[in-house]
């Protein structure tokens, strides 16, 4: 597997475009379209929040009930969440308009929205945006990059990645883009993710691969403890690579899953590192666990702790906060056997051994914690299972961004 330049347009047969429709923002693009030259099999995973935005409900119908999907329409600025029956009417109208201009079936159009909850969409602007998007579709890397920028809200950078790998002697490509910065919490987050691949794979295994990988990627990200109404990850496969159909869990399926995990994990790190107001990506690894579930529980507890997050912001090796967060997680372990390390581009340091402070330099620890990417590694010495969670530090800017978000 090889990382390459690009995002959703990297795979054969996929195009993208962006437009400034003036939905909420002025002077910037706020709509994106992804289109496949041929119908795709589609998979999706969605928010666990009981309050689900209309696009989530629409996309669940398309993914679970339609044989194929061929286009995605996404707007930023307004979430189309908590908009009543009118919200579903917006989704249907968006899909109908896209179907008309693209010459595809309405039930082959996926829709996504992100932004302020409770505001009504302006359908005249959505439809005008689609009229701009369709003729601008392009398969270039730049078109994909501009689409990634168009779906941003409080994000500070576009997020995309692409890889190539081999299946059955054929070169297969997978690319993705996502948005997410705030209202990010495990079990899907306030994020939209769109992944495209030219692999030839059955719809059933595509869905299984995505659903399984979500557990170790998007469900392991937390910025602020809030699970959104709009979380959606869509995976489209159009079979244009020409590889033998993947319809059994063989070595080809394993290679596909490895590539999918690489794409998803990269996007997750980008989301966590761009958390609202964040100055650092904070990664938590639990190793030596007895079970995977135990490792997941512990890593999530640490990465979501406000006290730990503020310590990371202050470049403070306050290891007691980490052990405390592990202790109230609900997972059972012996605190007197825990070893704890901090690691970054500046080096690695052990700050706790067998549950008590190690002999370490505070100055060296501060240097390590001052990097833009910081990892805490806790070894609980109970087995060979492990898990990784991603988050960020908690800064003053998080409050500034969210205190006036609607304005």
TrEMBL record:
Substrate binds at residues 153, 179, 190, 276, 402, 407. The active site is at 190 (nucleophile). Its main location: cytoplasm. SUPFAM superfamilies: DmpA/ArgJ-like. The keyword Amino-acid biosynthesis applies. Pathway: Amino-acid biosynthesis; L-arginine biosynthesis; L-ornithine and N-acetyl-L-glutamate from L-glutamate and N(2)-acetyl-L-ornithine (cyclic): step 1/1; Amino-acid biosynthesis; L-arginine biosynthesis; N(2)-acetyl-L-ornithine from L-glutamate: step 1/4. InterPro entries: Arg_biosynth_ArgJ, ArgJ-like_dom_sf, ArgJ_beta_C. It catalyses: N(2)-acetyl-L-ornithine + L-glutamate = N-acetyl-L-glutamate + L-ornithine; L-glutamate + acetyl-CoA = N-acetyl-L-glutamate + CoA + H(+). Heterotetramer of two alpha and two beta chains. PANTHER family: ARGININE BIOSYNTHESIS BIFUNCTIONAL PROTEIN ARGJ, ARGININE BIOSYNTHESIS BIFUNCTIONAL PROTEIN ARGJ, MITOCHONDRIAL. Belongs to the ArgJ family. Catalyzes two activities which are involved in the cyclic version of arginine biosynthesis: the synthesis of N-acetylglutamate from glutamate and acetyl-CoA as the acetyl donor, and of ornithine by transacetylation between N(2)-acetylornithine and glutamate. This is Arginine biosynthesis bifunctional protein ArgJ. It comes from Coprococcus intestinihominis. The gene is argJ.
């Amino acid at each position: 597997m090889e990382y390459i330049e690009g995002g959703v347009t990297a795979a054969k047969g996929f195009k993208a475009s962006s437009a400034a429709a003036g939905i909420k923002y002025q002077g910037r693009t706020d709509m994106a379209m992804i289109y496949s030259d041929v119908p795709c099999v589609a998979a999706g995973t969605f928010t666990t929040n009981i309050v689900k935005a209309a696009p989530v409900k629409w996309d669940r119908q398309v993914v679970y009930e339609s044989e194929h999907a061929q286009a995605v329409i996404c707007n930023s600025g307004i979430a189309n969440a908590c908009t009543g029956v009118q919200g579903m009417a917006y989704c249907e109208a968006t899909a109908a308009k896209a179907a008309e201009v693209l010459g595809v079936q309405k039930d082959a159009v996926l829709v996504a929205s992100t932004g302020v909850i409770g505001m009504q969409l302006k359908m005249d602007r959505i439809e005008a945006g689609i009229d701009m998007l369709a003729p601008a579709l392009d398969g270039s890397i730049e078109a994909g990059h501009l689409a990634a920028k168009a779906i941003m809200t409080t994000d500070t950078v576009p997020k995309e990645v692409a890889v190539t790998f081999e299946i059955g002697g054929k070169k297969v490509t997978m690319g993705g883009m996502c948005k997410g910065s705030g209202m990010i919490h495990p079990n899907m987050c306030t994020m939209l993710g769109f992944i495209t691949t030219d692999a030839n794979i059955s719809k059933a295994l595509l869905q299984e691969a995505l659903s399984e990988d979500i557990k170790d990627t998007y469900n392991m990200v937390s910025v602020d403890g809030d699970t959104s109404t709009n979380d959606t990850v869509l995976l489209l496969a159009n079979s244009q690579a020409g590889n033998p159909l993947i319809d059994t869990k063989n070595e080809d399926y394993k290679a596909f899953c490895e590539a999918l995990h690489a794409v998803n994990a990269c996007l997750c790190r980008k989301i966590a590192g761009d958390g609202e107001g964040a100055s650092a990506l904070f990664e938590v690894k639990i190793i030596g666990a007895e079970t995977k579930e135990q490792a997941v529980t512990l890593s999530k507890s640490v990465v979501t702790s406000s006290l730990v997050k503020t310590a990371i912001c202050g470049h403070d090796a306050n290891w007691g906060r980490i052990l405390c967060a592990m202790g109230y997680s609900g997972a059972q372990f012996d605190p007197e056997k825990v070893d704890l390390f901090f690691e970054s581009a500046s080096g690695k340091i052990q700050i706790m051994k067998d549950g008590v402070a190690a002999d370490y330099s505070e100055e060296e620890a501060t240097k390590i914690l001052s990097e833009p990417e910081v990892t805490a590694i806790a070894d609980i010495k109970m087995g060979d299972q492990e898990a990784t969670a991603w988050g960020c530090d908690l800064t003053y800017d998080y409050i500034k961004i969210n205190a006036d978000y609607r304005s």
